[in-house]
Amino acid sequence: MVVVMQEGAGEKQIQGVIDRLTSLGFDIHRSTGVRHTLLGAVGGDKTGVDPRDLELLDGVHEVIRISTPYKLAGRTFSPQNTIVSVGGVPIGGKNVPLLAGPCSVESEDQMEAIASALAAEGVKLLRGGAFKPRTSPYSFQGLGEAGLKIMRQVADRHGMKVVSEVMDHTEIPMMLNYVDMFQVGARNMQNYILLKELGKVTRPILLKRGPSATIEELLLSAEYILSGGNRDVVLCERGIRTFENYTRNTLDVSAIPVIHKLSHLPIVADPSHGTGLRDKVAPMARASLAAGADGLMIEVHHQPEKALSDGAQALTLPMFQKLMKELRLIAVAVEREVQ
Ligand code: PEP
Ligand code: MN
């Protein structure tokens, strides 16, 4: 990091900062500018240093962090893109898979109607929530294990893999019997007990960005899972909370190239939660693919008007089929493939 001293800082103040940095194990490179003295601090235990503590030292103007606080999630750790395999379906390579399905698993008939149509379009990753993080406790909370059983059976019938949300670490052992990928919902992005437990499993994780989380916070949450030993993490941009009210969330499409630069982990976009409105989903899915998304999570329902959750943002089956055609065309332009 670089410590910028205040204009006119005295030798006693400068020496005080140098002593503190040295005690933290840093080597100091001092340079004296026309107005400011700069102290470059290299080496040392950066993880244990809070830059704000240094900013409070006498005579300090600003502390600029240079290295990133996340290590395993960063590009420097792994310059090559990571490809995560979800039961044999890769995310992060040339192919951009769709993770599609209803918001919630509601019944066997519902899952069969949706999954058969998706499978016919080449979709291999079936999404569906059995444990639902609903804003209101009076809303449908999901079918629980019974829903996972339905999903597993339907997915197996169509040669698909199961992606479903885990809300609590105590559910992990039971869910291992049914899911090919654990989804961590936006609301749980900073549930560190859950993230640590998922660091111990040998199953890929889809980590959604919290509604108010910065990209750095998302990468640090991924770091919890990676540092626990599970290297199969896929990030998901699903919209953040802004001052805009015409959409449910604001899909931060720019997070896709930003994350590609900072991290080797694949990044999937979820324009369904990112917009909250069916008619906005296809345009933002197209934009996300063009921006470099490594996968697309899309909510689809055969009868959205009857859906028990998120019906307004679910694509109908014909809408999904039309979107797939468009995505296949866009994929060519950005040297990707959509099945
Ligand atoms: C979901 O995928 O259905 C969901 C609840 O998403 P999020 O956690 O992004 O709100
Ligand atoms: Mn949903």
Q: Could you describe the 3D structure shown?
A:
The protein has 339 residues and is an alpha/beta fold. The protein folds into two domains: 2-64, Alpha-Beta Plaits; 84-338, TIM Barrel, CATH 3.20.20.70. It is built from eleven helices and 14 strands. It has helices at 11-23, 51-55, 108-120, 145-157, 172-175, 192-198, 215-227, 255-262, 271-275, 278-291, 317-333, and strands at 2-5, 26-32, 37-43, 60-64, 84-86, 89-91, 98-101, 125-127, 161-165, 181-184, 205-208, 233-237, 267-269, 295-299. The strands form three sheets. The protein has an eight-stranded parallel beta barrel with strand order 7-8-9-10-11-12-13-14, surrounded by five helices. Strands 2-3-1-4 form a four-stranded antiparallel β-sheet. α3 runs parallel beside α4 (145-157), α6 (192-198) crosses α7 (215-227) and α10 runs parallel beside α11. The radius of gyration is 23 Å and the shape is elongated. The two termini are 45 Å apart. The mean pLDDT is 96. Bound molecules: phosphoenolpyruvate and manganese (II) ion. Phosphoenolpyruvate (PEP) is lined by residues 103, 129, 133, 185-187, 208, 238, 273.
SSE layout and pairing:
Blueprint: E1 2-5, H1 11-23, E2 26-32, E3 37-43, H2 51-55, E4 60-64, E5 84-86, E6 89-91, E7 98-101, H3 108-120, E8 125-127, H4 145-157, E9 161-165, H5 172-175, E10 181-184, H6 192-198, E11 205-208, H7 215-227, E12 233-237, H8 255-262, E13 267-269, H9 271-275, H10 278-291, E14 295-299, H11 317-333
Parallel strand pairs: 7-8, 7-14, 8-9, 9-10, 10-11, 11-12, 12-13, 13-14
Antiparallel strand pairs: 1-3, 1-4, 2-3, 5-6
The chain binds phosphoenolpyruvate and manganese (II) ion.
